[in-house]
Amino acid sequence: MRSHYCGQLNETLVDQTVTLCGWVHRRRDHGGVIFLDMRDRDGLAQVVVDPDTAAAFANADSARNEYVLRIVGRVRLRPEGTQNAKMPTGLIEVLASEVEVLNTAATPPFQLDEHGKVGEEVRLKHRYIDLRRPEMVDNLRLRSRITHSVRSFLEGQGFLDIETPVLTRATPEGARDYLVPSRTHPGSFFALPQSPQLFKQLLMVSGFDRYYQIAKCFRDEDLRADRQPEFTQIDLEASFVSEDDIMAISESMVRQLFREVLDVELPVFPRMAWDEAMNRYGSDKPDLRIPLMLTDVDDLMEKVDFKVFSAPANAEDGRVAALKVPNGAVLSRKEIDDYTKFVSIYGAKGLAWIKVNDRSKGLDGLQSPIVKFMKNVVEELLDRIGAEDGDLVFFGADKARIVNESLGALRVKLGEDLNLYTRDWAPLWVVDFPMFEDDGSARLQALHHPFTAPACDVETLKADPVAALSRAYDMVLNGTELGGGSIRIHDRAMQQTVLEVLGIGEQQAREKFGFLLDALQYGAPPHGGLAFGLDRLVMLMTGARSIREVIAFPKTQSAACLMTEAPSEVDAEQLKELNIRLRHKAKAESAGE
């Protein structure tokens, strides 16, 4: 029905007849001549309709925004003074000889160029309209280019694209499962996969050696800007590899991706141990574009006459840390109070601070409500922090977890508020993660997942599991975790030991992971892999603020689809087929309602 996309037109087509199909983006009537900005997925083209072509003019006159038209016309240069250098097609226009209305359109719920004036709920309710916006088209086009680049790279490295099941069994992998009732097995449920983890390991046992998949994953967890209940992973796994092998393959893939799609040459990917990341940045995914760092000052605070500092400094799980903000003394008291409220989100009870106005004046050159409590250590404190005149120093004092989370988040917020970024892209590998974490519950939790190999033998792991490190690695970019992976456990005895440390007994292990444990005894090769969050990767590469802007049909933060009104109730007959009875309806029936 068409010869060209609107965005493909340029001056090389002058005097040629073209046929366009698309939507009316804007209609203007200038002294009896009608101008139509026609839009399709490739861009905009200006169409001119003269009264001389009566039938075409009548149809153009009846057209309104979002009408679907087919245009036949001759490409010509725009008259001098009317060219638009901001448009890719701004040098030419199409003089229409035919205008056909393929479909009319009701008045849309919002104008595409005024989407910012309506709430996100309105845009998600009418997502098919929202997706017509050029910004959304660009986002999804770039997403397509990313997946194409990934597939080309991995297939060039000998990886096979293999699909794994979507209906599987529930396994504890760190988040709640989405469950699917089985009609043919009454009382039993499938689970949607949180990841293809177990199946890709089984593929390694099967001898496929190199696997990849762009896989849908599902997790029933609390949402935020970079989380969705269903999301997409770039998943890869390989046999007979070390950590360095997987990291080299993954890094090369991301480098090629940025080079091909954004024409960006990423800098060297440094490696940082998890301990160092937490101590210096308060985060295991630090944004290295921001030059601010945390400084430990526990030893200086152990004997100060200020229990807010001395108590956590002497506690086994406590920490006192400082965050220097160069030239930060210009911040007002109101701004400091606002930052105090901000860190309270992360459990901090307050935010102590010192403004360094003039160090040559000693205590008189410092402005702070806490200096009087630490007169004997303040000079040594400022020397350690490297504080100079004009600097502002923030302090966190509490349990180490709270200090890390609050000062780590404050560091990122200060970087954004004060525009402290030193470069555009800052990639990083975080390595040497702890094998387990103590979240205060009755038993240890796997920091990654139960199939991550520890960096020690079985006896060492049994003797001191808390001290064990894992063979895991995370790729971080600009403070966002792009992907995480590990060398997996390929030995059945080690896998059983890890499950025991996690408090998963033999019977429960058999119920949850019996098929994996069985497979590990039949010649499982050493193997490892990594999974990238495709949505997060696209979000970073497009500069979007949320992954909802790079997913065609996303859910809201309450895990609902406003467009389809999912999740929804189902009729009683469907529930009966599944042998399910809803508790609230059963109560209503028993009450005679």
TrEMBL record:
Domain of life: Bacteria
Kinase as UniProt keyword: no
Residues reported to bind ATP: 219-221, 228, 481, 533-536
Name assigned to this protein: Aspartate--tRNA(Asp/Asn) ligase
Gene from which this protein is expressed: aspS
Top class in the EC scheme: ligase
Summary of the function given for this chain in its UniProt record: Aspartyl-tRNA synthetase with relaxed tRNA specificity since it is able to aspartylate not only its cognate tRNA(Asp) but also tRNA(Asn). Reaction proceeds in two steps: L-aspartate is first activated by ATP to form Asp-AMP and then transferred to the acceptor end of tRNA(Asp/Asn).
GO BP of this protein: aspartyl-tRNA aminoacylation
